[in-house]
Design brief:
Elements (H helix, E strand, L loop, with lengths): L1 E4 L6 E4 L2 E4 L2 E4 L4 H8 L8 E7 L4 E7 L7 E7 L2 E6 L11 E6 L5 E5 L4 E6 L4 E7 L8 E3 L21 H4 L4 H6 L6 H9 L17
Antiparallel strand pairs: 1-2, 2-10, 3-4, 5-12, 6-11, 6-13, 7-10, 7-12, 8-9, 8-11
Length: 213
């Protein structure tokens, strides 16, 4: 597995080695040794795993968890093809307002690590695109926030041949500037503190009714 720093501070792309034979392919999307060498510490204690299936054109995000408590994510595409988008929405970050993209598919076998406070979105490029997530915190509806993926100031690189399909929540989400004006964005220094605490035992589980991503 190889690691690459993304343009967003603290975010990484990981590319897995594949093993193929006449039966198919074997791949390990997460490998502790490579992750620890890149990030400088172990993976967070996993509180929840998520799985979404999307048809072509679906755009999910920009989603983030209020900090505190904050949440880190490790994301990969188990089937299909997606354009994964990492957005720095942390006030005071040296890369605030910056985004980066990673193509996730069954050719490159890449994964993405999103540190605490960073926004996440993706575009499904094929039908039956399956995204898998490991998260450091359980889903709590009132702590999950969204920004508009169509914010012209961010100018996310949504493919020209895609007519974005958004949820009602994402379609009505605030722009980055509106969220900043309302004090809804994570603070970079606090996110760094929360990031340093990752690896402690997960919180007690919450009622997951209504979980979405």
């Amino acid at each position: 597995m190889q690691a690459r720093k993304l343009a967003v501070h603290g975010a990484f792309e990981f590319t897995s080695q594949t093993f193929s034979d006449d039966r198919g392919v074997f791949v390990a999307p997460f490998q502790q040794q490579t992750f620890q060498a890149a990030k400088g510490g172990p993976l967070f204690s996993v509180a929840q795993s998520n799985h979404s299936v999307s048809r072509r054109g679906v755009v999910r995000g920009i989603h983030y968890t209020a900090a505190p408590p904050g949440a880190a994510k490790y994301v990969y595409c188990a089937s299909g093809r997606s354009l994964d988008i990492v957005v720095d929405i942390r006030r005071g970050s040296p890369t605030y307002g910056t985004w980066d993209t990673v193509l996730l598919d069954q050719t490159g076998f890449r994964s993405v690590y999103l540190p605490v406070g960073v926004g996440h979105a993706f575009v499904a490029l094929t039908d039956h695109t399956v995204m898998a997530y490991l998260t450091s915190a359980p889903y709590v509806a009132e702590q999950e926030l969204a920004l508009s993926p169509l914010d012209p100031a961010l100018a996310l690189p949504l493919p020209d041949d895609i007519d974005p399909i958004l949820s009602e929540r994402d379609g009505a989400a605030l722009t980055l500037a509106q969220a900043a004006d309302r004090g809804l964005l994570p603070d970079f220094a606090l996110c760094q503190e929360l990031e340093a605490r990752l690896g402690t035992p997960a919180q007690a589980p919450h009622d997951l009714t209504g979980t979405r991503t």
